[in-house]
Amino acid sequence: MGRDPLPRVTRFRRGYHRRQVDAFLNHIELSLTGVLPTPSAAEVRQAGFELARGGYRTTAVDAALDALEERVLLAARSTGGRRGRVDTQAETEFLRGELTMPYMKRFPRARALQRGYDVDDVDDFVDRVVAVLDGQRTLTVEEVRTAPFRPRRGGYLEDVVDETLDRVVELLLLARQQGGRENVGR
Fold first, then answer.
1. Rounded Cα–Cα distance for residues 170 and 41 (Å)
2. What does the buried/exposed string (b/e) look like for 99-115 if buried means 16 or more CB atoms within 10 Å of the residue's CB?
3. φ, ψ (nearest 5 deg) of residue 185
4. Model pLDDT, residue 181
5. Across the strands, what pairs with 151?
6. Are 116 and 109 in contact (CB under 8 A)?
7. Fewest CB within 10 angstroms: 44, 63, 106, 143, which?
8. Could you tell me if residue 104 is left (phi over 0), alpha (psi between -120 and 50 degrees) or otherwise beta?
9. Of 172, 159, 183, 181, nearest to 66 (Cα)?
10. How far apart are CA 154 and CA 80, in angstroms?
């Protein structure tokens, strides 16, 4: 489909299942040509694959998905018309409102015996995101995607935190496309 072949791991190591990755990437490429409905950037970001011996190198697939996510976001933005465009200022204000909740109460918590993300780790990172939204610092998409959160019983619910960080990633990608930078602050 016009893309470079992805590197594979040795046959004794595990990588992403080749057929699953190929099918997903072909589906996305077809959708970008208009043959199939275009998926959302979140669908690309949340793609998952089984591990198999001799599969594709995970870091290479992840990098390809990151680039594809940006292409999908750009395609959705260019074909969405006026209604399909995201108002980055309004999205920034909305996220700022959600993320400036009191410390240790920014997200719903997992039950006492359930694992979630460590509250301190998440809150410290959210403070960095809020500083970006306020225009006080910069943050890259890669920093958001690779933010490390330790698992803790009774921590923040992972799905809710991940969903919010997905919105931050989309906002940063939109800001990068609009102004050539990833700073979304004032």
1. 8
2. beeeeeebbeebeeeee
3. -70, 180
4. 53
5. 117
6. yes
7. 63
8. left
9. 172
10. 40
| Domain extent listing, the chain | 14-82, 86-179
Question: For residue 168, which of 186, 149, 145 has the smallest C-alpha distance?
Answer: 145
Q: Residue 59 in contact with residue 13, Cβ under 8 Å?
A: no
Say what the pLDDT of residue 1 is: 46
Rounded to an integer, what distance in angstroms lies between the CA atom of residue 38 and that of residue 80? Answer: 11
Could you tell me the two tokens for 156? 């923040």
Place of tokens 């918590």: 109
Burial class (CB in 10 A: 0-12, 13-18, 19+), 149: buried
pLDDT per residue as tens digits for the range 68-116:
988 888 777 665 544 555 678 888 898 998 899 999 999 999 999 999 9
Ranges of H-type helices in 33-147: 41-45, 58-79, 81-84, 88-99, 119-133, 141-145
> Do 2 and 9 contact (CB within 8 A), yes or no?
no
Kindly tell me if the per-residue pLDDT of 57 is higher than 50.
yes
